[in-house]
Amino acid sequence: MSHEPYIRIVPGSDTAVLMVHGIVGTPRHFDGILAAIPGNWCVYNILLDGHGGGVKDFTNTSMDIWRKQVRSILNALCVRYKRIFIVAHSMGTLLTMEAALEHTDKVAGMLFLASPLKIGVKPRAALYALQLAFELEKPGSGADVMRRDCGVELSKKLWLYLGWIPRYLELFRQARKCRELVKKLKMPCIAIQSKNDELVSRKSVKYLAENPKIEIHELERSGHFGYVPEEQTFINSKLKELFEGVKK
After folding, report:
1. Which of 60, 125, 187, 203 could hold 118 in an S-S bridge, CB 3.0 to 4.6 Å?
2. How many Å separate Cα 99 from the centre of its chain?
3. CA–CA distance, 180 with 124 (Å, rounded to integer)
4. pLDDT digits 0-9 by tens, 182-224
């Protein structure tokens, strides 16, 4: 599966949507959301450094690189467009909330999906990862959903993943940092969490709720990596509401 960025530039448009995936994620995570974005708006669904390749590519990147990448892209968009909306998943929510605080005059609204302000890895997530590494997932299983949402080509050489430890330690530090940053967001925000999330603790809702500007919802059936059809529809409806609310 290709994990390329998706860029849609509409000449004359004054609005852009920046989309940022999560750790070991892919721009493909937002495939089901693209239809909710007005056709006359520009879209920048980016690929974070170290993603789209193999295990060693991910080892050789860092949180600092991702942070600078998101900041650089948002800086450029703020120069070019009148307003920016942000749609982010998992780690992408942490990166974008930090960058957005530097552009409160241009970032009109934000949609957070599975924001990991408190990380809580469930045993089934580790099982899914092992099934993926050894290509043991069954069609339609949780591991299969995880496969479609994974932006790194996995390896059966388990020792290679030791190089990923620093990346996840950085993620934990970024999550702790953003528990304070999230309180400072002033633009309209919608956060959609999943009760059955394999990687995010439901305590994240508590941190999100400390900011009254954030409208919070919890999905009943979907997990971290994908959405059942009716909940994908719900996500899209909330995104459209965010767009329309700002237009008014």
Report:
1. 203
2. 14
3. 30
4. 999 999 999 999 999 999 999 999 999 999 999 999 999 999 9
